[in-house]
Specification:
The protein is built from 2 helices and 2 strands; from the N terminus they run βαβα. It is α+β, with helices and mostly antiparallel strands and 48 residues long. It has a two-stranded parallel ribbon with strand order 1-2. The longest helix has 11 residues. The relative contact order is 0.29.
Length: 48
């Protein structure tokens, strides 16, 4: 079995962030490892 693809979900709007995470959790082989609220450029997630 292959290792899961690890995903960080980032958005500046909490409702979109939640929805994106819930949608990704339905895919086998994906693992959401972190969630981040970031500014519009995504710099917060890119720096971690």
């Amino acid at each position: 079995m292959q290792d899961p693809v690890r995903v960080v979900v980032a958005d500046d709007h909490p409702v979109i962030l939640f929805g994106a995470e819930q949608a990704l959790l339905k895919f086998p082989g994906l693992q959401v490892v972190a969630r981040a609220t970031v500014n519009r450029t995504g710099q917060g997630a890119a720096n971690h």
